[in-house]
Structures are given as C-alpha cells and as structure tokens.
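Example 136.
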Amino acid sequence: MIISRRAEFSASHICRNPQLSDEENARLYGPAANANGHGHNYVLEVALDGEPDPATGMIYDLKELKDIMMREVVDPMDHRHLNFEVPPFDTVIPTTENLTLEIWRRLAPHFTEGRARLHTVRVYETDETFVEYAGK
Ligand code: NI
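Predicted structure in complex with nickel (II) ion:
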C-alpha cells in the first residue's frame, strides 16, 4: 500500500555546465542556461510504502511526513536560488533529475526503520513534466 503527500516550493535555477561553451549550453538547455536564472513553482510528491499497523490502521503519520518534507526540502529550498544557496547545486547542475535525486537523498534516511519505506519521489517542474525516482 502506498501513501503520498504533496508539497510545493518555488525556487530559481540556472541549468548550465561551466565546462561547456555558451553555444553548447544554449543547445543543451535552451533558455534555462541563461545566467540570470529563472524560477519554477515546483510540486514535490513523496510516496511511502508499507502495511498499515494493525493497532493504529496507519502506515505512517502523515503529519510527521509533512514535517520531514518541510525540514529537509521546503524550508531550505523555498524562495532560494538553487545554484547559489542550496548545496550541492553550487557544483551539481540543478536539473529536475538532479533535484529529484537530491531530495531522495535527504528523505531516505528517515525511512530506514519502522513500517514505511520511501517508495518514490516525484518532482513536477511544470504541470506537464515531472521526474520520478524510486531508488536504485
Ligand atoms: Ni528551469
């Protein structure tokens, strides 16, 4: 059984590889390579899997999940410029793929014990596009 929680945060980023020329960056990332950066209203969906505890009927306390998502992702990233304010994106290109991976790394340690395991992390960069990661 899967339970999910959603949260939103707004952040700016630049998708640019400093080892490539302006021309190559523009070809790879389009306008996202522009050094001024631009913003997104990201939607994060975190899913946990497990079986309900027979005593409580719950897999995991969704309030607790919210608190972890706020502490590990929303508070440090909301209204930030990812490249300049949120490591490791000073050195890692903050594509949605890399952002999703970083969020997984921040959340997974919270779900190594107990009934619930981190199942998927999904990050929507737009209404139409998202990246999903389900661990290795
Ligand atoms: Ni972008």
